[in-house]
Amino acid sequence: MGQFRTVRDFLWANRGQYALGLLWIIFVDCLQLIIPKILGSFAQAYANGTLNVSRLGVYAGIFCALGFLVGFSRYRWRMHIFGTSRRLEFELRNRLFSHLETLSTNYFNQHKTGDLMAHATNDVYAVRMALGSGLVMIVDPFFLIVTTVIVMLNTVQGSLVFFSLLPLPILALTVLFFGRVIHRRFILVQDAFSALTDRVQESLAGARVVKTFVQEHAEVQKFVDGNRSYFDRQMALARIQSIYNPLIQIISSISFLIALVYGGVLTIDHRITLGQYISFTSYLGLLTWPIMAIGWVINMLQRGSASMERINRIFDQRPEITDHEMAVEKRELSGEIEIRNLTYTHRGAATPSLKNISIHIPAGGRIAMVGRTGSGKTTLVNLLLRLFDPPPGTIFLDGTDIRQLRLRDIRQAIGYVPQDNFLFSQTIAENIAFGVDEAKQAEIEDAARIADVHDNIVEFPLSYETMLGERGVTLSGGQKQRVSIARALLKNPRILILDDSLSAVDTRTEDRILRGLNRVLSERTSILIAHRISTIKDADLILVLDEGAIVEQGTHEELLSQNGIYAELHRKQQLEDQIASGDA
């Protein structure tokens, strides 16, 4: 049960609630132990001919009072134990999500969304059941079995109790064997459910691509295959449970058979009274639920243990990138960037992604980067944001090694518009204001105007209150890019990074956006990454990257005069523009 170490603090903090619940359970069990005694007394009074209407009314009143007390007590223990287990589910799910938010981006590159969703739903539910119903089934059956056996020994001959309970060791061995099998099969079920959830999430998120490539049938088949795998594993678990539960009932029925035959013989021989026989069989009936519950509790605890083990694997993960112990607090950064002899190799890669990069960008400076796909431009940006950790002594902000600065200060100072623009399923206004705690409507609209998306937004019936679909599917590619630019601008960062953020807009729209950005970019350090020369030609310094190294650098005019890669790229784009103009 070491898997539940993660929730040990919660269990200790709520020990009072659990203790009260268990006390109510014990009280209910004590009340149930009284009922067979009264039934035996009632039967013996009938056998002796002493039962009359008045005494019958007394028995009826006692049964009604006991029924009310049992019902009320069961309500109390359910509120204490089930209510606490619900709070556990709530807090564990919150804690799991909070922990996921602390993990580095590389973790999400290696783990599927559907699998993580299954952890937060099915696995948390299984833990709640184990520490709610499972806890009840640990205490209730064992207390009831022990006390019932003691009372039975004081009611009838020990030989009858002994022979009637003879099947119990077989029952214990059965429970232990099936418990291990159920544990293994439940882990396989949860893994299959994770895979199925991920398949559904991925297919629905990519619905447009699926329809564009006419792959609906193929996606349905993939879902059917995943669903079949989940079904097969569920059936494998169900087959074990289908054998297990009846087997428990059969073993308990043997006890009843022994009691019926042997107890009947003792009653006929007048070695025990009819009242004692009725009480004994009633007590034996009380043992049916606890005996079956032992099977259920093993099943439930095994499921909860397997799920807790899966959740613990997430909690055991630590973010790869964290604040240094002696991190320097710099809430206000001017935006000076210096990169010194930076060479960086991705984990598992054979060759470096960046080689001996050295750049100095003064506060307020504007540089641009161009290069083929895979030349290292985005990797360099990710290192600036510390989404990856650079080698010590290679990247500096305002003269301080970036590894010595707090992550919050670095990322608060940088406004980043990535290639893949992610928008949330919220209103347009909420998406633009995502990085700001309290943004005024006028500020949101100003940012949208600079990004040249304001006129598009107001054309929607609900304007800025328009709800976006998943990943912003309501908008076109160019509109999504411009909303993302507005979001970065509203943050008012000291450093603005645009990573190929105008690729989905036409040249006229690009020109309007750049004119609007010129005023903003003059007030802060900016890094522009683009494939179009028109986007970057006004930068103070342009870097040409190839295979992770800076192969050319200079202003637009200087690079054209070098007649190298940049000049070749410029000539190709001019030719493309001329062809496009001729076609128009």
State the gist of this model.
The chain is an alpha/beta fold and 584 residues long. It has two domains: 234 residues, ABC transporter transmembrane region fold (Up-down Bundle), CATH 1.20.1560; 247 residues, P-loop containing nucleotide triphosphate hydrolases (Rossmann fold, 3-Layer(aba) Sandwich). The protein is built from 21 helices and ten strands.
Please describe what this structure looks like:
The protein has helices at about 10-15, 15-50, 55-100, 105-110, 115-130, 135-155, 160-165, 170-205, 205-210, 215-270, 275-315, 375-385, 405-415, 430, 440-450, 455-460, 475-490, 505-520, 535, 555-560, 565-584; strands at about 335-345, 355-360, 365-370, 395, 400, 415, 495-500, 525-530, 540-545, 550-555. With about 575 residues, the protein is α/β, with parallel strands linked by helices. It has a six-stranded mixed beta sheet, with helices on both faces. Strands 2-1-4-5 form a four-stranded antiparallel beta sheet, with helices on one face. α18 (about 505-520) links the parallel β7 and β8. α6 packs antiparallel against α11 and α8 (about 170-205) packs antiparallel against α10. The protein is elongated and about 120 Å long. The N and C termini lie far apart (about 75 Å). About 35% of the residues are buried. InterPro entries: AAA+_ATPase (IPR003593), ABC1_TM_dom (IPR011527), ABC1_TM_sf (IPR036640), ABC_transporter-like_ATP-bd (IPR003439), ABC_transporter-like_CS (IPR017871), P-loop_NTPase (IPR027417), Type_1_exporter (IPR039421). Keywords: ATP-binding, Cell membrane, Membrane, Nucleotide-binding, Transmembrane, Transmembrane helix, Transport. It is a multi-pass membrane protein. It is found in: Cell membrane.
